[in-house]
Design a protein that fits this description.
Elements: E1 26-32, E2 39-44, E3 46-47, E4 52-53, H1 54-61, E5 69-74, E6 96-98
Antiparallel strand pairs: 1-2, 1-5, 3-4, 5-6
């Protein structure tokens, strides 16, 4: 016998589009993880998946084990920085630092 209870309709969250949070500045993220060469990458200033500022995402998702360090800074505050260097050098004018090795 079928249930008389109404079935809940789950609606997917609306997708964030690039128009709703366009990156306007570049952010450099530098990482130190034990056993791996220091690395860096350039990101936009918004996480496109959830439209949150990159600095907030870095603070919420960076590793915090002994030896870890993640730094993020505006690319414009670090002119001439080479993200392709191996190992990557530390940033100057850091905006966010996460981890005990910072």
């Amino acid at each position: 016998m079928p249930s008389s209870r109404p079935t809940a309709i789950v609606r997917p969250k609306s997708k964030v589009t690039q128009q709703s949070c366009p990156p306007t500045r570049d952010v450099i993220v530098w990482m130190r993880i034990p056993g791996v060469q220091d690395s860096a990458q350039v990101l936009g200033n918004y996480d496109q998946q959830n439209c949150e500022p990159t600095f907030k995402t870095v603070q919420e998702t960076s590793p915090t084990e002994p030896g870890d360090c993640t730094e993020a800074a505006w690319a414009s505050d670090n002119p001439g920085y080479n993200v392709d260097a191996t190992p990557a050098r530390r940033l100057k004018h850091v905006y966010v630092a996460v981890g005990p090795a910072c």
